[in-house]
Amino acid sequence: RIAAVDGDATSGIHAFLHVDTEGALAQAAASDERRAGGTPLHPLDGVPIAVKDVLTTKGLPTTCGSKILEGWVPPYDATVVRRLKAAGLPILGKTNMDEFAMGSSTEHSAYGPTRNPWDQTRIPGGSGGGSAAAVASFEAPFAIGTDTGGSIRQPGAVTGTVGVKPTYGAVSRYGLIALANSLDQAGPVTRTVLDAALLQELIGGHDPLDSTSVDQPLPSLVDAARQGATGDLTGVRIGVVSEMSGEGWQPGVMARFQESVDLLVKAGAEVVEVSCPSFVHALATYYLILPAECSSNLAKFDAMRYGLRVVPDGNPSAEDVMRATRDAGFGDEVKRRIILGTYALSSGYYDAYYGQAQKVRTLISRDFEAAFERVDVLVSPTAPTTAFELGEKLDDPLAMYLNDLATIPANLAGTPGISVPAGLAEEDGLPVGFQILAPALADDRCYRVGAALE
Ligand code: GLN
User: Fold this and answer.
1) How many CB atoms within 10 Å of residue 434?
2) How remote is the CA of residue 191 from the centroid of ligand 1, in Å?
3) Predicted pLDDT of residue 409
4) Which family is annotated (predicted)?
5) Is 151 a catalytic residue?
6) What CATH code is assigned to 2-228+383-452?
7) Mean pLDDT, 10 residues at a time, the chain of 454 residues
8) Where exactly are the structural domains of the chain?
9) Residues 6+ positions from 102 with CB-CB distance below 8 Å
10) Cα–chain-centroid distance for residue 438?
């Protein structure tokens, strides 16, 4: 299937940056043998999976969609990858992404964009457009994504797949090349809510190699998905976030959203409107905290330790090599954020920008806490629009950032969220996503309500 539809940088889906045909077939053969012997390692033993190219894979290239890591082969597996392998899931390869996970369209990949399987002139979302497109185009039944501000959920929404951002700390970040450490979280991309529950249970759980890993079991996600699938939500209180709709939200998206809300009411849920006033500042807050963290994280790509090294002519100093390498190796969006973050963290400005953003971040968490005293979950459309045209927002960073309006609050608060398909928008026939947000460690609620909509 990958050979038939994936194409390359110029045509086809281009979900993959690297396909490990030989490795995946060998892993599949070993799995067949275990199954024939009646000793599978796990219920998902043998189910192939695609992994976003931001997670390290021993022996397989890992580029983060960047030229600066071209040719780098990590010597170790991310914990998520190690757990997949230990359960017998063949790793198909690495999926395309916006460079260092910065973007909402996968157009910032240094290796060419991924195309939306529903309409190849459209974006597949981002930054994890490769993982979502691989699943939507039936190139992979499962994929792993990462979500720092929406990069699992928004691609899920615009490709008609299920995408989950688990509670911060519920899935190990060891081997996840950091965009913004306090926001990043790996999670499942699948076609059904139950698949996602199985996958999160497999990759999640405490990991001593990640100091932010939560050492506390979550309620069963698979049970929650099965319970939701009965279609009965009697007693569940659902809050519609009033700040996450209105002006600028595509009418066809709002219509499908409303239809899903009506379905939840029919399933017995109680629906109320909830206001989270600080959410309108989430985007501004995110675009200080994220650049601050990433400007510091990306300092390690210094031409000495990893990947690319550009040596200018003459007798260059170490600094000349560093400058030439970073100039050639990083794309525009990455440079934009490094500049923004370095500025926000500079002495004299630190309190005014970074410090202030941290305070607003606390207010956003408090809005969630207040809301979750009244309701069990919050809901909204996952993204304000369906998939836009390739190139449409590429030269307008602010317009691109606005696509993450509804997904970013959960990252700032560390709480879980899921995007489930909600049908197609009437005006363009493209998929719409329905987002469900829950309190920290209550990921099961996302699965229960999500499964009730399938
Ligand atoms: N689109 C958002 C950004 O550009 C989110 C990225 C992400 O979740 N990795 O930062």
Assistant:
1) 26
2) 22
3) 98
4) Belongs to the amidase family. GatA subfamily.
5) yes
6) 3.90.1300.10
7) 98 98 98 98 98 98 97 96 98 98 98 98 98 98 98 98 98 98 98 98 98 96 98 98 90 98 98 98 97 96 92 96 97 97 92 95 98 98 98 94 96 98 98 98 98 96
8) 2-228+383-452, 279-363
9) 108, 127, 179, 294, 333, 334, 337
10) 17
Q: Which residues line ligand 1 (CB under 6 A)?
A: 101-104, 126-127, 147-151, 179, 290, 404
Tracing tokens 């050492």 back to the chain, one arrives at 215
Tokens describing residue 63? 């580029």
Give, in order, the Cα–Cα distances in Å from 193 to each of 27, 65, 143, 225, 229. 26, 28, 13, 7, 9
What is the rounded CA–CA span in Å between residue 428 and residue 256? 13
Residue 377: φ, ψ to 5°: -140, 160
- Given a contact cutoff of 8 angstroms between Cβ atoms, the answer to whether 419 and 128 are in contact is no
Ligand 1 center to 158 CA (angstroms): 15
Give CA–CA dist 184/168, Å, rounded: 8
At residue 411, what are phi and psi to the nearest 5 degrees?
-70, -40
The residue written with tokens 């490709």 in the block is: 159
The single-letter DSSP state of residue 314 is: S
Q: What's the pLDDT at 246?
A: 80
The crossing angle, in degrees rounded to 10, of helices 79-86 and 193-203 is 110
220 a catalytic residue = no
Task: Round to whole Å and give the CA distance between 130 and 105.
Answer: 10
Look up 52 and say whether it is catalytic: yes
DSSP, collapsed to helix, strand or coil, labels residue 425 as: coil
